[in-house]
Specification:
This protein is α+β, with helices and mostly antiparallel strands. It folds into three domains: about 400 residues, Multidrug efflux transporter AcrB transmembrane fold (Up-down Bundle); about 140 residues; about 140 residues, no CATH class. The chain is about 65% helix and about 10% strand. It is built from 25 helices and ten strands. It is elongated and about 105 Å long.
């Protein structure tokens, strides 16, 4: 079979594979599921899933914060009436289970055989100053109202909508749109409206993902096209690498669609990653091809030489780059696991297309017109650069040592810290809304404590209630909860109701006999919507729930440690056992694995590079020669994080593993070419010089593409994406400098083995 026939067959097979991928692309969906960020396989996750099956999820709600017009308070009759109208509207909406509002909250009072709900806010009497003052006094003295439904400054209210469990984006978006439309109809301006909860974040994240994915891919393609044009100055030098990248990207996304994983906050980066990472092999291959054809070599022989000299090194670099992504599959966080898996597979696919699709196209396309010797146009520059580097080798080594020591020192200051809305900037509208609830109300961070009475007791046993009350007091006074509810809340409310609604009667019964007199009403009141999720119907298990401002994971870890000490010292495990749970706890648990996952990823990469170096050179001394120039940028970026106060969190922990896997790519190309040159040149220095000229152009071009591509992520509104672009770009920038300065110095200082060609001649003799 001729070369042209083989090329046509290759294109036909790839076209059929592309058609199959297109069907999987149709199944792609954008997805943001808050639960996906829980640590999979964790015992606490299994426990929470059982807990939420009994009591409901702690994040199935929407907070609607409404501010009164300037100069008015929440007791303004017109404002209160609009809040009530909105409340009635929200109660009728699909997927709304219950609405707790300032205008429907009532003080239960038992008189005779009936229970009467006396509203805290009398809408029909707000025009009367005396009545308004009476309502205000009662509201601000009643526990659980201020900071929950009423703002501390009396200028805002919150309406809480309990939604159906695990509400997905389409129905969630419909609900949010209906609420916004009604509020607009009521004349409540956007600046007086604040929304909080999982549905809000879910809607905003997915919509932004769509926009940012399109923007980043467009910017990356334009940047890559510009750099490719400057490098090759031909249309095929631009379009052919982009064709390879497009094929690899389509293949990677097709795998995502086929698996049903969906495009989330992490996998949305896959196209950008492929635009900048997947093009490296094509650049190395085409650079070698241009060099050969520039010297007058015919197309097919030039392709054979280029494939022989590039395929092995590119294969090794694709292996290490993909391995950098594959190590992310050890993460217990599903979006990171999926991102590592599908991006790693896409990198391998880009390598396969580089050495199948690219040669086939070059055979079938007209031979590019070049002047003789065009491939050597950069030789003079690299010859002079290497000369200057070797003349100042002591300065280079000294600067590297200082960077290493300084980077390690500064990196030791990096702290592990995360918050529930970590990926949103401080001035983001959603972040500002959540901050509104933290400053004016109880906050948005949920707290959950499972109550497990012991010894055949129920949560309404007096001994259990007293211990639960002691826990509540600790949580509000020391831990920082601004709102708390538990079976104690139910019992106190019943006692108050039986005593005419008097506030001083809002306390636990003093004796078992008094508690027994409450039992009949207790069963009735515990079925009220705001109370029924605080205990199971049989009373054998209870829930202590609350909300607080989000102080950050490190602060919460200290608070939890203090809570555990309190529980051990002040509660009787034969009466009541407790266990922390909840969505916030699960998100915080991710931090416990960050350092382990990062070190594991880098460790696997280092081990792989070590094996490659040993196979190529049979020399242990060459291992640090290759590792040092690639670990140095990692240390420098760690130092930058420490100096600038950038915390280690889920989004930034993946940076080091990815950056090392990408940065080592050029080193692998360099040493694989060096191994070939050692068999052709009489000395190691001549081999290094020849390799420097051959690999230098591709190293600079691919690094510029990588740095430029990642820099497009700086325009992201997500902090995690922003830091991926900034820190990986900085890592690669430092890496290319180390590649062109420190690497040749270390090779010449350490590698003393006779050239490969001479060794083979000796063995043959």
């Amino acid at each position: 079979m001729s070369v042209r026939s083989l090329s046509y067959l290759t294109l036909l097979l790839l076209a059929l594979l592309g058609a199959a991928c297109a069907t999987s692309l149709l199944r792609l969906r954008f997805n943001y599921n808050f639960n996906d960020f829980y640590p999979t396989g964790d015992p606490d996750l299994a426990y929470y899933e059982q807990y939420s099956a009994r009591f409901g999820n702690d994040n199935d709600y929407v907070l609607v914060g409404l501010e009164a017009p300037a100069g008015r308070t929440l007791f303004d009759a017109d404002f209160a009436q609009r809040v009530d109208t909105f409340t009635r509207f929200a109660q009728r909406q699909p997927n709304v289970v219950h609405v707790l509002s300032p205008t429907t909250a009532a003080n239960p009072v038992v008189e005779g055989l009936g229970v009467f709900n006396v509203p805290y806010l009398h809408l029909d009497r707000l025009a009367d100053p005396a009545s308004r003052a009476q309502d205000s006094s009662l509201i601000f003295r009643t526990p659980g109202l201020v900071g929950n439904l009423f703002a501390r400054n009396a200028r805002a209210v919150t309406v809480l909508l309990q939604t159906t469990p695990d509400l997905k984006k389409p129905p969630g978006d419909s609900l949010m749109a209906s609420l916004r439309q009604e509020l607009s109809r009521l004349g409540i301006p956007d600046e007086h409206l604040h929304l909080g909860g999982k549905l809000v974040a879910q809607s905003v994240f997915v919509d932004r993902l769509k926009v940012e994915m399109a923007v980043f891919v467009s910017l990356s393609v334009l940047l890559v096209m510009g750099l490719l044009w400057l490098t090759f100055r031909t249309w095929w030098g631009v379009l052919l690498p982009l064709t390879v990248v497009a094929g690899a990207t389509v293949g990677g996304l097709a795998l995502v669609g086929w698996s049903g994983a969906g495009i989330d906050l992490m996998t949305a980066l896959l196209p950008v990653m492929m635009c900048v990472v997947g093009i490296a092999d094509s650049v190395h291959f085409l650079t070698r091809y241009v060099t050969e054809t520039g010297e007058g070599t015919a197309t097919v022989p030039a392709l054979r030489i280029s494939m022989r000299e590039s395929m092995f090194g590119s294969g090794l670099s694709a292996l290490t780059t993909s391995l950098g992504f594959f190590t992310l599959t050890t993460s217990h966080i599903r979006p990171i696991h999926n991102f590592g898996l599908y991006t790693g597979l896409a990198v391998l696919l880009a390598y396969a297309l580089t050495f199948t699709l690219l040669p086939a196209l070059l055979v079938l396309l007209p031979r590019p017109q070049q002047r003789f010797g065009a491939g050597r146009s950069w030789d003079g520059f690299f010859r002079r650069l290497l000369h200057h580097v070797l003349r100042r080798r002591h300065w280079v080594v000294g600067a590297a040592a200082l960077l290493l020591i300084g980077g390690l020192t500064a990196a030791s200051q990096v702290r592990i810290e995360s918050r529930l809305l970590d990926d949103l900037a401080d001035d983001d509208p959603v972040q500002l809304d959540f901050r509104f609830f933290e400053q004016r109300f109880a906050g948005v961070r949920p707290f959950e404590l499972n109550l497990q009475p012991q010894g055949n007791r129920s949560v309404y046993d007096l001994a259990v209630l007293r211990q639960t009350e002691a826990i509540e007091q600790y949580l509000t006074r020391t831990y920082g909860l601004h709102f708390v509810a538990s079976p104690v809340t139910v019992v106190k409310s019943v006692r108050k109701a039986l005593n005419g609604g008097a506030l001083d009667e809002y306390r636990l019964p003093a004796t078992e006999a008094e508690l027994a007199r409450l039992q009949r009403q207790l069963r009735r009141v515990s079925k009220r919507p705001e109370f029924r999720a605080l205990a199971t119907p049989d009373g054998l298990e209870g829930r202590l729930t609350g909300r607080m401002p989000d102080p950050g994971s490190s602060t919460v870890a200290r608070l939890n440690a203090g809570l555990h000490r309190f529980l051990r010292a002040r509660t009787d495990s034969t009466v009541l056992r407790t266990r922390l749970t909840g969505s916030a706890l699960l998100i915080d648990k991710n931090n416990q694995n960050l350092t382990r996952d990062m070190l594991l990823g880098i460790g696997v990469d280092v081990l792989m590079v070590t094996v490659i170096v040993l196979l190529l050179f049979r020399s242990l001394r060459m291992v640090p020669v290759v590792l040092v120039p690639n670990l140095l940028p990692i240390v420098v970026v760690g130092g930058v994080m420490g100096v600038c106060g950038v915390p280690m969190k889920v989004s930034t922990s993946i940076i080091f593993t990815i950056a090392f896997g990408i940065a080592v790519d050029d080193t692998i190309h360099f040493i694989s070419k060096l191994r070939l040159m050692l068999g052709k040149e009489p000395t190691v220095q001549r081999a290094v010089s020849h390799t420097y000229r051959l690999a230098g152009k591709a190293v600079i071009v691919t690094s510029l593409i990588l740095v430029g591509g990642f820099s497009t992520l700086l325009f992201s509104s997500f902090d995690g994406t922003f830091y991926v672009g900034l820190l990986i770009g900085l890592t690669l920038l430092v890496g290319v400098v180390a590649e062109l300065t420190l690497l040749p110095i270390l090779i010449l200082a350490v590698y003393k083995k006779p050239r490969v060609g001479r060794a083979r001649q000796v063995r043959a003799a």
